[in-house]
What does this fold into?
Amino acid sequence: MASQASPKDSVPRGPHVVVSLPTRDLKRAFRFYREGLGFRLVVETADGTMPEPVHFTLNAGVSLMLIPTGGFGWVAGGNKVAEQGVSECILSLSLETEAQVDALIARAREAGAEVPAPPGKQHWGYSGTFKDPDGHVWMLDVAG
It folds into this structure.
């Protein structure tokens, strides 16, 4: 009899970083990341509905969790959630090719993201940035 994989078998081994972002509209943010950018959920629901918590896999060592702003202060030990338009960090995602950077920025724009820095060559390499519907800044670049 073949053994069945347990849920723990799909959990990344070694250090794992979970980036948690506050969102004012969880359903909108879910659609942006899931449908707009094509991010994969850590756990898919049988009927394709939004799970709770909303948790996406970015790669084997990093995932993204979306937390409603009302609960974010509790998770963050009482810290206030920054007002929209205030960036406390930039989320960077390194991709393999310029075409991948171009494609993901295009998908983000089509899904409603603002693109303050279109993809292009910079003195440090090829990159571009977009802001998600909650104003979180993402920088995409070519790894290397």
